[in-house]
Amino acid sequence: MLFLRNFWVVIVLVTGRNAAANLDRVEGRPHRILLDTDVDTDDFFALLYILKLNRSEFELEAITINANAWSDAGHAVNQIYDILYMMGRDDIAVGVGGEGGILEDGTILPDVGGYLSIIEQGNSTAGGCRYRQAIPVGLGGRLDIDSKYGLRKAFLPQGSRKYSPLRQPTTQQVMIDKISAGPITIFMTGVHTNFAIFLMKKPHLKQNVEHIYIMGGGVRSGKPTGSCPQSASSSCLPSQYVERGNLFAEYDCNPYAEFNIFGDPFAAYQVIHSGIPLTLVPLDATNTIPINEDFFKTFEKSQHTYEAQYCFQSLKIIRDTWFNDQFYTSYFMWDSFASGIAVSIMRNSHNQNGENEFAEMEYMNITVITSNEPYAAYDGSNPFFDGRKIPKFNLKKDGVHSGHVQTSIRDPFCIVQSEKERCQDGYTKEIKGSEGVRVLVATRAKPNPDNSSKLDRAYFKSFLDVLNHPQQTGKFNFTTQFPYYKEVLYKPDFGNKKLGKPIVFDMDMSAGDFLALFYLLKLPAEEINLKAIIVSPTGWANAATIDVVYDLLHMMGRDDIPVGLGDVFAMDLSDPRDCKYVKAIPQGSGGFLDSDTLYGLARHLPRSPRRYTAENSVKFGAPRDTDHPELRQPLALEIWDSVVKTLEPGSKISILTNGPLTNLAKIIQSRKNTSSVIRVSEDVTLC
């Protein structure tokens, strides 16, 4: 009997030890992370910070791309592939887009691509820009983000992964695959459309989401230092950031919203009210960590890895092209700061109140404003309710979603004298009662505990240390990947040939335009003398696709042909930021996604020394000269003027236009005696 008793004791002890070992192994697994990003500059700061962390602690498994915010899908996805290739992380899944839609009855079809806010989403990828029009399309906006101010093609290496039609994993596919696989943490550094669609379509999978970390919103935030001088009078109007939000183009209409939440307020409401534990890093905290001059100079001296170099060069060109002299008090650590806070909280998960190294935290009850009072107004602004017997998604008829929804940047409903009556769409508002959700909120960046350091914020030191850490560093940049590559311009020698009719090709960079360009370049120069190309970003491709034109010309040995960039907006719009006409073009397959990537084939072109850059000079209206103003991208009208000057007396130009007539109309409208240089007999050929 004694033997049996001892035997059972041994069994219990051994079993207990095995259970403890299994528990330790489960707890010792790395935190699985999915990053949902709009691929803005501060987003890839955050991405590189995460990629540098110890993979035994933090494993980034997937990236999904916001296609309705600061970058366009085709340019964004290929840049993500290039960054991952540089960092040796081709194992990370990347999702973008999708062709699904939402039916009139609210049925969400598979693979909704997130190209449009939920309130605008129909049964295709074509649609309006109710919220997205707050983001600039050209300089300082999507053009510069898509091209990374010209640095992307100059710096990043190029691997084998790229966007390919019909093969590219969609956003929803990647989210479903990774979240289905087990417990995971979501980092959100952009608009919330993708994840909201996931929650609405697959609510049973939210149990696998351990926590959501969001950079976005403004709860108690005020005017940060740099918007108005601290000594300014109360009548000072901030030049950029105002009140709770940061919609610098929309102060008169909506001083409450921040870009990531304003991009799709209804989606943000779904995420924040999902019941999943959530931490918010709003402007309250990010406004307290501006990129000051001491940090900038320290960063300039601390570029020991490729990833640090890419981040600093990006930050520098932003500073050099900043619209005023307040960069050091107006540009902040946004998404990377949020990632640092998230990682620190996850490392200290035993703390109940989100204690971390980088920010002070506080629990608040908040909601997201999606419409404006009075509710149940049904004034034609709200597709969820207007003209419907049953509201879309079975929303409550007189509920918080039933009021006036801001229709545009200059919505007359929102432009009022009383500040309290202005629109609040996208406002992360602190409220009492059942409509609020208890959320952990970062309120202020913590100071650097090292008082002798020039870096005044604790996160500044971590950011530079992590980026410059020799472990898990980038393998190469473009020039070290291809050490024998030389930036050589190839120009034909026509010798004594008598060149043919002078032609200016006006294109909107669709796939058909590139076929036409190939044809023109193959014709004998004695018949057709292609003098210049002017591109129109008001058609089937976004402005940054001009780089594909440069690469094609380089391949054909025609680096002598100048390329001018046309206006990014159509003419005669009541508000130039409106997408009244371009909204007819699909955002996904067969539309912008395929045009911007030339159906995936653009990656096979050689990389031209010529590319779009944000380099500029005071001579052309910039606030200051950048390092290389000679690399400035010429405008379409400037190229036209230069071609006209080269004409011999009596000569005329034929214009072949394959897209919107915006460039041609601008030429005729702004240049006198245009008819005297355009060939009258053939005039303009429209295709």
Automatic annotation (TrEMBL):
Entries under InterPro entries matching the protein: Inosine/uridine_hydrolase_dom, Ribo_hydro-like
Molecular-function GO terms, alphabetical: hydrolase activity, hydrolyzing N-glycosyl compounds
Gene3D superfamilies per UniProt: Ribonucleoside hydrolase-like
Pfam families: IU_nuc_hydro
Keywords, alphabetical: Signal
Residues of the Inosine/uridine-preferring nucleoside hydrolase domain: 33-372, 503-677
Signal peptide: 1-21
Top-level taxonomic group: Eukaryota
Family: Belongs to the IUNH family.
Protein name (database record): Inosine/uridine-preferring nucleoside hydrolase domain-containing protein
Source organism of this protein record: Manihot esculenta
